[in-house]
Sequence to fold (242 residues):
Amino acid sequence: MNGAYSALAGWFEYLNADCDYEKWSQYLYERARALGVCCGRAIDIGCGSGAFTRAFAARGFEVTGYDNSPAMLAKAEQLGAGGRVRYVLADARKVRVLGGRADLALCVNDCLNYIPPQDVPAFFARVHGCLRRGGAFLFDVSSAYKLREVVASNTFCEDREEVAWMWFNALQGDRVEMDVTLFVRGEDGRFTRSDEHHVQYIHEREDLVAAAEGAGFCVRAVEGAFGDPSDKMRENYLCVRA
Fold:
């Protein structure tokens, strides 16, 4: 059994292409602009293979992406983004800004779900220290509803020509234990199996708002995916450093 996002790293964006990274990135950019940040320095915490890092670099930001998966960062480096991006191997809870405070911090696509609730206040305080006054902090979570009612203890699978994967879940109080099995087709037609274990924690909205405000952020809005008020699966938090 491997750690989270080892074998999965090479296939993550491919398997999640239906989430529409371009639309998602544009949504985040529009929300950052609405909070007064349209350029400058950005940090992408839990950047994975760099989808949002690349998108914000393309919009003129100088971006540093942080992730604790060497395999994810290797994929990010492979995909490239030019001279406006650098990647750093770091746990989200230990991130430190390099070369001066940032104008924008991102922590999206479930990164915060991998942080235990008791560590969230300290994490928000660290992000606060990475931002200039008036800087924007955009983060999201898979909602408590999604993890309790949709993911829960259910099993999901998908079979594609190059890769097949199965996702076994077990709801355990404040978290979901996840075992992911990946089968990747080699050049000889044979499949190689890899197994990973993930843990995603359930975060309640009122707890996240309290932790963010306690760290010195003003929470301007909480909204669903792409700003959809009817969406119950994802919660986007739009914050400004006081």
Notes: The helical segments are 12-15, 21-34, 51-58, 70-79, 120-130, 144-151, 205-214.
